[in-house]
């Protein structure tokens, strides 16, 4: 059950990001530059905060180099909550 809930959580996280980006794009296409800019800024701010806190957690763990490479890749992709 934990595995299924984990997969559902990952899917919902990705869908949330996709819908946020879709909203920002629709604002820009409709000519609402301020709303589009604010939405994009909030998406970017959330990405930065989650990545910084995720990286902070990783520094406290002693793991092999291969895991560090995976962590950095997930951080770059914005999926750091997936591996926490």
Low-confidence stretches: none
The helix/strand order is HHHH
Residues in helices, as a percent range: over 70%
Q: Can you tell me the overall shape?
A: elongated
Count of spatially separate domains: 1
**Strand percentage, roughly?**
under 5%
The whole-angstrom Rg is 16 Å
Q: Which structural class do the helices and strands define? A: mainly alpha
Please describe the biggest sheet, giving its number of strands, its sense, and whether it closes into a barrel. Answer: none
DSSP summary: helix tally = 4
Organism: Batillaria attramentaria
Keywords: Membrane, Transmembrane, Transmembrane helix
Membrane topology: Multi-pass membrane protein
Protein name: XK-related protein
Task: Set out the fold topology.
Layout: H1 2-29, H2 33-59, H3 65-76, H4 80-83
Helix pairs in contact: 1-2, 2-3
